[in-house]
Structure formats: C-alpha cells, structure tokens
C-alpha cells in the first residue's frame, strides 16, 4: 500500500490541478501511480474523494474537507522537519529590528552586539525611530513598541516590563537649586521637556503613591526632540529629566545622576515586542527573541 503522507500529497496536487495527468506531470510520476494513491486513500477512508469524468475531476464534498485537512497536516510535517534540520544549527542571515530611539541606543545595542558576537553568521539592520512602524509592511522581523496596542491577528505581541520613567538630576543642579521632596516641588524647578511626547505626558508629569496620582505641570525653558540631548543637559546640571529607568541605571549607580522622589512611582507606559505570526520561526529570530524575553519579559 502506498505511503499515506505521499498519497495525501498526491491528492492535494490532483485537487489543485484538476486532473490525474496534470498532477502526474507536476510530480514526475505516471497517471496510473496517481490513480493508485487516490484509490488507496479512498479505500482507507471508505468514501469517494473525487468525481471522475473523462475531461476533468472534481472533489466531492468530503473531498474538499479532506483536502484542507491534508494541506494543514502536510504543512505541519514540513515545519517539523525544517525545525529538526535546524536543531543545533548555527543562526545565520539578516535580522531586521525597529526600536524607539532612546531604548535602542541606550539599552538594546549591547544586547544586539552580544548576539552578533555569539553568532558570526548573523547580520543585523537596527533602525531606531520613534514613529509608528508596521512590521509586516516595512519588513521588520521584530519591532519594539511603547504604548497601548491595537488588536491584530497578523502580529504576536510579547509584553515586556513597562517603560517606566524616573525623575533624576545631576548633583550640581541639586546643589544649586535644592532637592524636591514632593512632586509639587517640581513646579519651582527646571524640568527638561521631551518634545515628541504627546498627550498628557507632554504637558504634565504624573507621579503616584499609595494609589493616588499627582500630576505636575512640566513647562520648561528647554525642550528637545532627542532624549540623548536631554540626558546630556541633565548631566550638565541644567535641569531635571524624566529618563527611562534602564537608560539611566549606570548614571544612577555612578552618581552622575541622582534619582528624585524615590517614594513615588513615575509614569510608566506599556511596552511590547512585536513580530509577524509564523508557522515556523527562523533560528536567527527565535534565538534573539529568547534573549530579549529573558532580559525584559514582563513574565520573567
């Protein structure tokens, strides 16, 4: 009796091409062998799959249902075989990533370079921008996105630890202007503005404690569209900044910056890692994804 999976594959080609002879040509076998595969399936299933005429073959109602199941099963088998062939193989090829500018420049780059060092056959195109990016339309393997998501079946979203901001300033600034003890004290300080922020966060800085939130106007004499420049202004002692906590971690540890209002939670936004739904994920993508989730996953 013919191999069942092979027979299923032959049946799918007959269903797609409409005749035994066309399927035989496509598969480089004889029409008689095609007929044997179909007859073996019909005998096993106990029902007819194809209405046969002299000119063209058409599927029965059950044949159409069985065709769809066969295609799904054959795709799963192909995926399983591809995954098995990649087991233990070295990741290779291009990895395209999009990330917000501050997160990408201050935090993500070391993760990318470490991955490239570990896998010499991988190349990476890292695009940093704060605009909305569609991973599928723009051809990115991974997109880091700050803010709420809209539901889409085309993408998978992995929740990361929230994008939390902390208020901080240089010791020189605090020595000259004093250290704020409550969010309301920020009204009398130089608060550095990040112009790409829109909505409430662009006008007010929210801080929470014990379930209550206080919003403080963030009007500033200096507003910049690049947080790295704001970071430098803060290091120069010009004012107080809201910085991504992972981006200012080294500055806080070294004392170049001092965290303010430690008893309050600063603003936080949802943070996700997006990629297209795939039946089988490339080893290059899955390997880097695992590293990111180990470091930033909200579930870790």
Summarize the structure.
The chain is α+β, with helices and mostly antiparallel strands.
Helix/strand/pairing category: alpha+beta
Give the overall average pLDDT.
Answer: 86
N-to-C span: 51 Å
Give the strand line-up of the largest sheet.
4-3-5-15-6
**Net shape:** elongated
Number of helices: 11
**How much of the polypeptide forms β-strand, as a percent range?**
15-25%
Oligomeric state of the chains in view:
single chain
What is the N-to-C succession of helices and strands? Answer: HHHEEHEHEHEEEHEHEEEHEHEEEH
Helix coverage percent: 40-55%
Notes on the structure:
The protein is of the alpha+beta class and 300 residues long. The protein is 42% helix and 22% strand. It is built from 11 helices and 15 strands. It has helices spanning 4-17, 20-27, 31-45, 61-86, 101-118, 135-138, 171-177, 200-203, 227-235, 249-254, 283-296, and strands spanning 50-52, 57-59, 93-99, 122-128, 142-146, 155-159, 163-169, 193-194, 204-209, 212-217, 223-224, 241-244, 258-259, 268-269, 271-276. It has a 5-stranded mixed sheet, covered by helices on one side. Strands 7, 12, 13 and 14 form a 4-stranded antiparallel sheet that branches. A two-stranded antiparallel ribbon has the order 1-2. The longest helix has 26 residues, at 61-86. The two termini are 51 Å apart. The mean pLDDT is 86.
